[in-house]
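Per reviewer request, we include the raw input and output of the structure prediction for the construct analysed in the revised manuscript.
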Amino acid sequence: MRKIKNFEDLEKLRKRIMNKRNSLKQTITICNGTGCHAYGCEKVTEAFKERAKEMNLDVDIRATGCHGFCERGPILVIQPDGVFYQRVKSEDVDEILSKTIKNKEIVEHLLYEDPLTKEKIIYDDKVPFYQKQKRIIFGNNGFIDPTKIEDYIAINGYEAFKKALQMMNQDEIIEEIKKSGLRGRGGAGFLTGKKWEICKKNSNGNTKYLICNCDEGDPGAYMDRSLLEGNPHSVIEGMLIGAYAIGAKEGFIYVRHEYPLAVKNATLAIAQAKKYGFLGESIMGTGFNFDIKIVRGAGAFVSGEETALISSIEGRIGEPRQRPPYPAIKGLWGKPTNINNVETWANVPFIIINGSNWYSKIGTETSKGTKIFSLVGKINNTGLVEVPMGITLQEIIYDIGGGIPGGKKFKAVQTGGPSGGCIPSELLNLPIDFEKLTEAGSMMGSGGMIVMDENTCMVDVAKYFMNFLRDESCGKCLSCREGTQRMWEILDKITEGKGTEEDLELLEELSEIVKDASMCGLGQTAPNPVLSTLRYFREEYQAHIIDKKCPAGVCKPLIRYYIDKDICVLQGHGCGVCQRNCPEEAISGEKKVAHEIDRLKCIKCGICMEVCKFDAVYIE
């Protein structure tokens, strides 16, 4: 490995790497993201390497970053044709090698089948999950091995950094980022270029720092993790460009301890970048110095807030402080500090290399570019999707997500994480951008998107998120500490069937106080789940309070299990499966006779409903 000392060295290195590669050579790319690790991708990858060698096949095996379609892992794509196989196991390896690699035959049972048309799809770009996406920053994950810097250089990696150093001064870079319209992807959506400008102007030539925020604490959200573990050099390159523009010499990647693969790959990427000379002293012979360190967070949700994050890096408790002054003016160790999250930094190289005009044409008037969402919950196609701003919820949930499992109805989607809001089915055609989501009572957040079906109780959902937030509140300010606790207690009371109509007024009043009086974003946005469910699903709250019923059949104190005697006898012949599986022996009845549930013994576990094959058990 030879250190790069000037711009020509980078060109020579790229040529050397490309000369060793044959773009037409068959390459098996296997997703090795965290999701596919859970499905055994390591074992599959090793099996391919071993068997390809034994069979003396001229094929490359490449372990790549996350491909996004996590629900179908382990995912495998054979390049350059793009043959797409899903849910691949070690026992499939010989068949793939002997058929597809040797003879170009397709292994039918490993193809993705469209749940609507039942059509088997061969190529990755024809899979509906990918077709409506615009995978600018996430797409390269599927082509490169994140542990090899050469893979990143081969796809023009560090070319944007070279352009910035060679052809642009600091103000021109900042102006280009401002013109692009890039807004921070961490949640608040502040203009990135403006943030850089403030940091640079207020530093007066003194020490300043950069931070990459990979403290992703939203339940169900994992896009920053997948980007950092799947393409760490794209984040490092974005930070390098930002450091040069602002004049910082030191940067930190703050990543939570629960992300071991992201920590491992980012640490390795930093070490490789140093060896090649992309980090360190006089980078590419320009006299520009910059270095990056990894800091592991302990996993507190509030540490994603930038002042709390700074406090954590300084070695103190991760608690937020009052702003202003903002970190861009007074941040880490009192010095000007620019904080952006993983996705924001990964956008920067694309803007520099393609220009602000190219970038600003993607998205809406006020929200430019693409956004990665983690699509989870009651959805057929779970995974990470990168879409242009302005796409509708309908397109994401149905065209990309494949709709709701079991033919059930869509009820709502929670965007923006636990502090976001629940958007109802009436707003399925809502174009997604920062302003539209706020108008709907939710927010962009870092990109969590939890889909809910008709069997979801919205009061219970609000209680779930409030429970999370009261636990994660650092407790520094009274309004957040006590307000979230009181709100949770009221929601718990309602789901227990003990609520009153006055509780709804109190919930709304408390929500406004917590929003207005809390110091940081956690408290200021904590009431969103309550306010949005009250706004769109108030009748469900009233059903709990007035009728003492849970329409979705979720809140245990308000539901009763019954057995339809006619169905039990006529269709089930009194089979007794429910009786045999009941853990409390609460069901009685003889064969061919309708069974009954003893209310005093029933603990409402729902097992009887799950095991009945004739739908004879129902809830009221």
